[in-house]
Design brief:
By secondary structure, this protein is mainly alpha-helical. The protein is 41% helix and 0% strand.
Length: 76
């Protein structure tokens, strides 16, 4: 999920961001709305254009995986 991207539209419009990130506008809008999960390639291009680390631009949530909280990851 794209994190806080909507506020960046004050600085650039979608065609400018898409052009600067070397992707088409439809791809950018699909990433922004969560309809598409970007490849690492596109995530890095977008982060590079916006001068942000990828992990500040996107957040990852997976509700399908059980939590490992409290478990010792070094147990055998």
């Amino acid at each position: 999920m794209l994190h806080q991207f909507g506020g960046l539209h004050k600085l650039w419009d979608a065609p400018q961001v898409a052009d600067g990130s070397d992707m088409n506008v439809r791809t950018l809008l699909n990433i922004e709305t969560g309809k598409t999960i970007p490849s690492l390639f596109y995530a890095m291009k977008l982060a590079n254009f916006l001068n942000l680390p990828v992990d500040q631009l996107f957040e990852y949530k997976n509700a399908d995986l059980p939590s490992n909280e409290g478990e010792d990851c070094h147990e055998k």
